[in-house]
Design brief:
Blueprint (H helix, E strand, L loop, with lengths): L7 H15 L1 H10 L1 H12 L1 H7 L3 H30 L1 H14 L3 H9 L4 H29 L3 H13 L4 H5 L4 H22 L9 H8 L5 H4 L1
Helix pairs in contact: 1-9, 1-11, 2-3, 2-11, 3-4, 5-6, 5-8, 5-9, 6-8, 7-8, 8-9
Protein name: CAAX prenyl protease 2
Enzyme class: hydrolase
GO molecular function, one term: metalloendopeptidase activity
């Protein structure tokens, strides 16, 4: 289930670093448009008083702690080990996120109840949310299998909840569009370049899920080596 000490610190730092590289463009955009938000984020990391204030904010706790921990625990640590022996690791990486995406459909009922938009807009938004949560779920499932730890997916989930979906349309209309789009492109390029090296299983010790499958006679070399 990804609870172990071996390779803990690399598993906590490297996947988060990889995800921050992917968000290089949005981080640049945040620093240009809302420097106070970026400064507040740094204060949370560096100042104990800011942490104490955040820990009393129920919305912050839900988005940054409770949701990432519980969702990764259920959909990665619990569901992946059950699916993988039946489907193999590759199909499990893409099947598990579908359940993760469907789990976010409760937002439809919330929006319909409070009439926050038209029915068509609500369902279109839900389809879009399902798509990117499924892609994100596949990414964290990949991290869980390659690192053998739950901490990396949880921290990446918390970071992505803080950042939100990249405001690509706003970047295209930004006064500093060229350097910003260059940051987006550089982030995606470096992410693809570093995805395999920074998730190399050799950095994290033995991988419990891969070992379990090997004992069952199912070898998944591409993901486990």
């Amino acid at each position: 289930m990804g609870f172990r000490l071996e390779g803990f610190f690399p598993a906590a730092l490297l996947p988060l670093l990889l995800t921050m590289i992917l968000f290089l463009g949005p981080l640049m955009q945040l620093s240009m448009d809302c420097p106070c938000d970026l400064a507040d984020g740094l204060k949370v990391v560096l100042a104990p008083r800011s942490w104490a204030r955040c820990l009393t904010d129920m919305r912050w706790l839900r988005n940054q702690v409770i949701a990432p921990l519980t969702e990764e625990l259920v959909f990665r640590a619990c569901m992946l080990p059950m699916l993988a022996p039946c489907t193999g690791l590759g199909p499990a990486v893409f099947t598990c996120p579908l359940f993760f995406g469907v789990a976010h459909f409760h937002h439809i009922f919330e929006q319909l109840r409070f009439r926050q938009s038209s029915v068509g807009s609500i369902f279109l938004s839900a389809a879009f949310q399902f798509s990117y949560t499924a892609v994100f779920g596949a990414y964290t499932a990949f991290l869980f299998i390659r690192t053998g730890h739950l901490i990396g997916p949880v921290l990446c989930h918390s970071f992505c909840n803080y950042m939100g979906f990249p405001a690509v349309c706003a970047a295209l209309e930004h006064p500093q569009r060229r350097p910003l789009l260059a940051g987006y492109a550089l982030g995606v390029g470096l992410f693809l370049l570093l995805l395999q090296p920074l998730t190399d299983p050799k950095l994290y010790g033995s991988l419990p899920l891969c070992v379990l499958l090997e004992r069952a006679g199912d070898s998944e070399a591409p993901l486990c080596s």
